[in-house]
Amino acid sequence: MKEETEVEILDGMPAVVLREEDAICIADLHLGYEEALASSGISLPSRQLSDVELNFERAFNMCGGASLLVINGDLKHVFERVSRQEWKEVPMFIDFALSFVKKIILVRGNHDTHLGPLRRFREVDVVSTIEMGNVLLIHGHNRNFRSIFSSNAEEVLIAHEHPVLVLGDRVGARVRMSCFLRGECMGKRLWVMPAFSPLAGGTAVNFAAKSDFLSPVLRSEIVNTDEMEVYAVDSSVGTLAFPPMGVWKKISLFL
Protein backbone atom coordinates (compact mmCIF):
# COMPACT_ATOMS: atom_id res chain seq x y z
CA MET A 1 0.00 0.00 0.00
CA LYS A 2 1.48 3.33 -1.03
CA GLU A 3 2.41 5.88 1.64
CA GLU A 4 1.01 8.90 -0.20
CA THR A 5 -2.46 9.97 0.85
CA GLU A 6 -5.09 12.30 -0.56
CA VAL A 7 -6.70 12.64 2.87
CA GLU A 8 -5.40 15.64 4.82
CA ILE A 9 -6.46 16.12 8.44
CA LEU A 10 -7.04 19.77 9.27
CA ASP A 11 -4.80 20.55 12.21
CA GLY A 12 -6.74 20.14 15.44
CA MET A 13 -10.10 19.80 13.68
CA PRO A 14 -12.50 16.85 13.15
CA ALA A 15 -12.41 17.53 9.41
CA VAL A 16 -10.37 16.54 6.37
CA VAL A 17 -9.52 18.17 3.08
CA LEU A 18 -9.39 16.48 -0.32
CA ARG A 19 -7.23 19.02 -2.17
CA GLU A 20 -7.53 17.45 -5.61
CA GLU A 21 -11.33 17.67 -5.36
CA ASP A 22 -11.38 21.14 -3.76
CA ALA A 23 -13.47 19.59 -0.99
CA ILE A 24 -13.74 19.76 2.77
CA CYS A 25 -15.27 16.76 4.51
CA ILE A 26 -16.99 16.45 7.91
CA ALA A 27 -19.28 13.81 9.40
CA ASP A 28 -21.78 13.03 12.14
CA LEU A 29 -23.26 16.46 12.87
CA HIS A 30 -26.39 14.95 14.49
CA LEU A 31 -28.40 18.16 14.29
CA GLY A 32 -31.50 17.88 16.45
CA TYR A 33 -29.73 15.91 19.16
CA GLU A 34 -30.85 18.22 22.00
CA GLU A 35 -34.55 17.66 21.28
CA ALA A 36 -33.98 13.91 21.20
CA LEU A 37 -32.24 14.12 24.58
CA ALA A 38 -35.07 16.27 25.97
CA SER A 39 -37.60 13.60 25.04
CA SER A 40 -35.56 11.23 27.22
CA GLY A 41 -35.61 13.62 30.15
CA ILE A 42 -32.19 15.18 29.58
CA SER A 43 -32.28 18.95 29.17
CA LEU A 44 -29.43 20.78 27.45
CA PRO A 45 -29.20 24.28 26.01
CA SER A 46 -29.76 24.27 22.23
CA ARG A 47 -26.32 25.51 21.22
CA GLN A 48 -24.96 22.66 19.12
CA LEU A 49 -25.84 24.38 15.83
CA SER A 50 -23.89 27.51 16.71
CA ASP A 51 -20.89 25.38 17.75
CA VAL A 52 -21.08 23.38 14.51
CA GLU A 53 -21.27 26.55 12.43
CA LEU A 54 -18.36 28.11 14.30
CA ASN A 55 -16.20 25.02 13.84
CA PHE A 56 -17.13 24.71 10.18
CA GLU A 57 -16.16 28.32 9.50
CA ARG A 58 -12.89 27.75 11.35
CA ALA A 59 -12.16 24.60 9.35
CA PHE A 60 -13.08 26.30 6.08
CA ASN A 61 -10.73 29.21 6.74
CA MET A 62 -7.98 26.90 7.93
CA CYS A 63 -7.98 24.89 4.71
CA GLY A 64 -7.87 28.02 2.58
CA GLY A 65 -11.36 27.55 1.23
CA ALA A 66 -13.14 24.89 -0.84
CA SER A 67 -15.94 24.80 -3.38
CA LEU A 68 -17.46 21.53 -2.11
CA LEU A 69 -18.60 20.31 1.30
CA VAL A 70 -18.99 16.56 1.76
CA ILE A 71 -20.92 15.41 4.83
CA ASN A 72 -20.06 11.76 5.39
CA GLY A 73 -23.35 10.79 6.99
CA ASP A 74 -25.65 11.66 9.90
CA LEU A 75 -26.43 15.29 9.16
CA LYS A 76 -29.49 14.86 11.41
CA HIS A 77 -30.16 12.72 14.45
CA VAL A 78 -33.69 11.33 14.79
CA PHE A 79 -34.31 8.03 12.97
CA GLU A 80 -38.06 7.70 12.63
CA ARG A 81 -39.10 11.22 11.61
CA VAL A 82 -37.95 14.80 11.20
CA SER A 83 -38.08 16.51 14.56
CA ARG A 84 -39.12 20.14 15.06
CA GLN A 85 -35.53 21.08 15.81
CA GLU A 86 -34.31 19.33 12.64
CA TRP A 87 -36.87 21.14 10.46
CA LYS A 88 -35.40 24.38 11.78
CA GLU A 89 -31.68 23.66 12.14
CA VAL A 90 -30.89 21.49 9.11
CA PRO A 91 -31.89 24.25 6.62
CA MET A 92 -30.14 26.83 8.80
CA PHE A 93 -26.88 24.92 8.63
CA ILE A 94 -27.20 24.24 4.90
CA ASP A 95 -27.82 27.93 4.23
CA PHE A 96 -24.83 28.79 6.41
CA ALA A 97 -22.54 26.27 4.68
CA LEU A 98 -23.64 27.44 1.22
CA SER A 99 -22.42 30.92 2.10
CA PHE A 100 -18.93 29.35 1.98
CA VAL A 101 -19.15 26.52 -0.59
CA LYS A 102 -20.96 26.16 -3.91
CA LYS A 103 -22.21 22.60 -3.47
CA ILE A 104 -22.87 20.04 -0.74
CA ILE A 105 -22.87 16.26 -1.02
CA LEU A 106 -24.50 14.25 1.77
CA VAL A 107 -23.35 10.64 1.93
CA ARG A 108 -26.41 9.11 3.53
CA GLY A 109 -25.87 7.78 7.05
CA ASN A 110 -28.09 5.54 9.13
CA HIS A 111 -29.68 8.60 10.81
CA ASP A 112 -30.42 10.29 7.47
CA THR A 113 -33.71 8.50 6.94
CA HIS A 114 -36.11 11.43 6.44
CA LEU A 115 -34.59 14.35 4.58
CA GLY A 116 -37.56 16.64 3.97
CA PRO A 117 -35.64 19.72 5.19
CA LEU A 118 -33.28 19.34 2.20
CA ARG A 119 -35.94 19.40 -0.54
CA ARG A 120 -35.60 23.06 -1.46
CA PHE A 121 -31.83 22.92 -1.86
CA ARG A 122 -30.78 22.27 -5.45
CA GLU A 123 -27.15 22.63 -4.38
CA VAL A 124 -27.38 19.48 -2.20
CA ASP A 125 -26.96 15.97 -3.61
CA VAL A 126 -27.68 12.87 -1.52
CA VAL A 127 -25.77 9.68 -2.33
CA SER A 128 -25.14 6.31 -0.72
CA THR A 129 -21.43 6.31 -1.52
CA ILE A 130 -19.15 8.48 -3.60
CA GLU A 131 -15.71 8.02 -5.11
CA MET A 132 -13.65 11.19 -5.32
CA GLY A 133 -10.29 10.73 -6.99
CA ASN A 134 -8.67 7.80 -5.19
CA VAL A 135 -10.86 8.18 -2.10
CA LEU A 136 -14.11 6.28 -1.51
CA LEU A 137 -16.52 7.76 1.04
CA ILE A 138 -19.19 5.73 2.82
CA HIS A 139 -20.75 6.42 6.19
CA GLY A 140 -19.59 3.16 7.73
CA HIS A 141 -22.82 1.55 8.94
CA ASN A 142 -23.00 -0.47 5.73
CA ARG A 143 -23.14 -4.24 6.26
CA ASN A 144 -22.36 -4.82 2.58
CA PHE A 145 -19.12 -2.87 2.83
CA ARG A 146 -17.04 -5.61 1.21
CA SER A 147 -18.78 -5.17 -2.14
CA ILE A 148 -18.54 -1.39 -1.83
CA PHE A 149 -14.82 -1.59 -1.01
CA SER A 150 -14.22 -3.51 -4.24
CA SER A 151 -13.95 -0.19 -6.08
CA ASN A 152 -10.66 0.99 -7.58
CA ALA A 153 -10.20 3.62 -4.87
CA GLU A 154 -6.98 3.31 -2.89
CA GLU A 155 -8.31 4.95 0.27
CA VAL A 156 -11.62 4.68 2.13
CA LEU A 157 -13.07 7.31 4.44
CA ILE A 158 -15.76 6.19 6.89
CA ALA A 159 -17.46 7.77 9.91
CA HIS A 160 -20.28 6.39 12.12
CA GLU A 161 -17.99 5.27 14.96
CA HIS A 162 -17.34 8.66 16.63
CA PRO A 163 -13.90 7.49 17.84
CA VAL A 164 -12.46 9.15 20.95
CA LEU A 165 -9.24 8.58 22.86
CA VAL A 166 -9.49 8.59 26.66
CA LEU A 167 -6.39 9.83 28.42
CA GLY A 168 -5.90 9.92 32.17
CA ASP A 169 -3.64 9.40 35.13
CA ARG A 170 -3.69 7.30 38.29
CA VAL A 171 -5.10 10.18 40.30
CA GLY A 172 -8.29 9.89 38.30
CA ALA A 173 -8.12 12.80 35.87
CA ARG A 174 -9.66 11.97 32.51
CA VAL A 175 -9.90 13.75 29.18
CA ARG A 176 -11.64 12.55 26.02
CA MET A 177 -10.19 13.63 22.67
CA SER A 178 -11.87 13.12 19.32
CA CYS A 179 -9.58 11.16 17.06
CA PHE A 180 -9.02 9.83 13.56
CA LEU A 181 -8.05 6.20 13.02
CA ARG A 182 -5.91 5.02 10.12
CA GLY A 183 -5.41 1.42 9.17
CA GLU A 184 -5.86 -1.03 6.32
CA CYS A 185 -8.78 -2.98 4.88
CA MET A 186 -8.82 -5.12 1.74
CA GLY A 187 -5.54 -3.62 0.56
CA LYS A 188 -6.83 -0.05 0.94
CA ARG A 189 -5.92 2.61 3.45
CA LEU A 190 -8.86 2.97 5.83
CA TRP A 191 -9.64 6.22 7.63
CA VAL A 192 -12.22 6.60 10.40
CA MET A 193 -13.47 10.15 11.03
CA PRO A 194 -14.49 11.59 14.40
CA ALA A 195 -17.87 13.22 14.92
CA PHE A 196 -18.21 16.90 14.07
CA SER A 197 -20.95 17.18 16.68
CA PRO A 198 -19.64 18.47 20.03
CA LEU A 199 -22.41 16.56 21.83
CA ALA A 200 -22.36 13.11 20.22
CA GLY A 201 -20.85 10.37 22.32
CA GLY A 202 -18.26 8.05 20.92
CA THR A 203 -16.37 4.78 21.15
CA ALA A 204 -13.41 4.98 23.52
CA VAL A 205 -11.07 3.19 21.16
CA ASN A 206 -8.28 2.53 23.66
CA PHE A 207 -10.71 0.65 25.92
CA ALA A 208 -12.89 -0.99 23.26
CA ALA A 209 -12.99 -4.70 22.56
CA LYS A 210 -13.56 -5.75 18.96
CA SER A 211 -17.24 -6.37 19.70
CA ASP A 212 -17.65 -2.86 21.15
CA PHE A 213 -17.22 -1.11 17.80
CA LEU A 214 -20.36 0.17 16.10
CA SER A 215 -19.23 -0.07 12.49
CA PRO A 216 -19.44 -3.47 10.76
CA VAL A 217 -16.19 -2.47 9.06
CA LEU A 218 -14.29 -2.23 12.35
CA ARG A 219 -16.01 -5.27 13.84
CA SER A 220 -15.02 -7.43 10.89
CA GLU A 221 -12.12 -9.85 11.03
CA ILE A 222 -10.47 -8.28 8.00
CA VAL A 223 -9.58 -5.09 9.89
CA ASN A 224 -6.90 -5.33 12.57
CA THR A 225 -8.03 -2.49 14.83
CA ASP A 226 -5.06 -2.98 17.18
CA GLU A 227 -2.74 -1.91 14.37
CA MET A 228 -4.69 1.24 13.53
CA GLU A 229 -2.86 4.51 14.11
CA VAL A 230 -4.50 7.18 16.26
CA TYR A 231 -4.54 10.92 15.53
CA ALA A 232 -6.25 12.94 18.27
CA VAL A 233 -7.52 16.40 17.39
CA ASP A 234 -8.13 19.38 19.64
CA SER A 235 -8.42 23.00 18.57
CA SER A 236 -6.19 24.18 21.42
CA VAL A 237 -3.30 21.76 20.88
CA GLY A 238 -3.63 20.70 17.24
CA THR A 239 -3.28 17.14 15.96
CA LEU A 240 -1.44 14.63 18.14
CA ALA A 241 -0.15 11.34 16.71
CA PHE A 242 -0.31 8.38 19.06
CA PRO A 243 0.98 4.79 18.80
CA PRO A 244 -1.33 2.09 17.39
CA MET A 245 -4.47 1.24 19.33
CA GLY A 246 -3.13 -2.06 20.59
CA VAL A 247 -0.30 -0.27 22.38
CA TRP A 248 -2.68 2.22 23.96
CA LYS A 249 -5.00 -0.53 25.13
CA LYS A 250 -2.15 -2.03 27.14
CA ILE A 251 -1.27 1.35 28.65
CA SER A 252 -4.91 2.12 29.37
CA LEU A 253 -5.20 -0.91 31.63
CA PHE A 254 -3.09 0.97 34.16
CA LEU A 255 -5.01 4.26 34.03
Low-confidence region ranges = none
CATH fold-level topology: Purple Acid Phosphatase, chain A, domain 2
Element-level helix/strand string = EEEHHEHEEEEHEEEEEHEEH
Number of helices, counting only DSSP H or I runs of 4 residues or more:
6
CATH superfamily: Metallo-dependent phosphatases
Structural class: alpha/beta
Arithmetic mean of pLDDT: 92
Brief overview:
The chain is of the alpha/beta class. The chain has helices at 33-39, 48-62, 84-97, 145-148, 216-219, 245-252; strands spanning 8-9, 16-18, 23-26, 68-71, 103-107, 124-127, 130-132, 135-137, 155-158, 163-168, 174-185, 188-192, 203-204, 229-234, 238-242. The mean pLDDT is 92.
Describe the structure.
The protein is an alpha/beta fold. The chain has a single domain, classed as Metallo-dependent phosphatases (Purple Acid Phosphatase, chain A, domain 2), CATH 3.60.21. Helices cover 20% and strands 27% of the residues. It is built from six helices and 15 strands. Strands 7, 8, 9, 10, 11, 12, 13, 14 and 15 form a nine-stranded mixed beta sheet that branches. A six-stranded mixed beta sheet has the order 1-2-3-4-5-6, with no helix packed on it. Strand 11 and strand 12 form a beta hairpin. Helix 2 runs parallel beside helix 3. The mean pLDDT is 92.
Outline the secondary-structure elements:
Layout (H helix, E strand, L loop, with lengths): L7 E2 L6 E3 L4 E4 L6 H7 L8 H15 L5 E4 L12 H14 L5 E5 L16 E4 L2 E3 L2 E3 L7 H4 L6 E4 L4 E6 L5 E12 L2 E5 L10 E2 L11 H4 L9 E6 L3 E5 L2 H8 L3
Parallel strand pairs: 3-4, 4-5, 5-6, 8-9, 9-12, 10-13
Antiparallel strand pairs: 1-2, 2-3, 7-8, 10-11, 11-12, 11-14, 14-15
